[in-house]
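Researcher: I'm preparing a figure for a lab meeting and need a structural model of a single chain. I don't have an experimental structure, so a prediction will have to do for now. The sequence is pasted below. Please return the structure as tokens so I can convert it later.
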Amino acid sequence: MAKYAIKDLEHYTGIKAHTIRIWEKRYGIVQPERTETNIRSYSDEDLKKLLNIAMLNRHGHKISELVNLPDKKLCSLVLEMSAQKKSSDLYIDNLMLSMVDFDEQKFEKTLTNIIIYHGFEKTVVDILYPFFVRIGYLWQTGHIQPGQEHFITNLFRQKLIVAIDQLNTELSDSSKTFLLFLPEWEMHETGLLFFHYLIKKSGHKVVYLGQQLPAEDLVSICQSQEIDYLLTYSTLEPKIEDLEQLKSVIKNEISSKKQLIVSGYNANLFADIPQNNTIIIPQGKDFKLFLNNL
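Model: Understood. Here is the structure written out token by token.
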């Protein structure tokens, strides 16, 4: 069973730590364990209960009405609300619950319902992309269990690969070529696969190189292939020397002829590469707009 600090609960649920303390004191909403130095420690069950309460509270239920309900009743209210409302925040909260509980069935059911209502592309752009940005933030700041992150990203990775394979896009004379890669320190390719899907669906060619690409290989491929754009996704904090080596290669050997597109939690690490050659994409919607304007 995982253990969470109160700051972890804040990042997962969106409820301020101060508010959680007040709810504990006033309503006994959860009963955390405490260390010898009086530091709170919360369980998976505490986290799931607070996630359910946070969802219901954000959608009009008073906290005073929720605190005395058994966990099964809270879950049933969430299920009823999920069937009635089509809120992005609610979808993301349900996906978060399926991750915390390692519940593949709940993930599949939630994702299927979203896709039926919104379609695959809108689901990815408006719901799953913000969800994985949130997961990336939790990972980067140490507020997520590695097993949870691997569980949920691998489920979604499978969905994306299937969706990419099912696209039958014909290239035209105006089609651009995108080279997609992750630097040597990057392992998380979900965001890169997401952009692969959007590029291919928009009628452009993708050269997909995947994870942990050495900088020298990037140079040789760019010299041998007609590439219009380089695209990478940055989530992890690299060693300074590794980052500077890659930026030097891009600035001095590649980017004078090709544009670099960067997205992800740490995209701004590349912002000092000359602006006429670098595009920072904060959101999935921004990249969709970029593709529409090509």
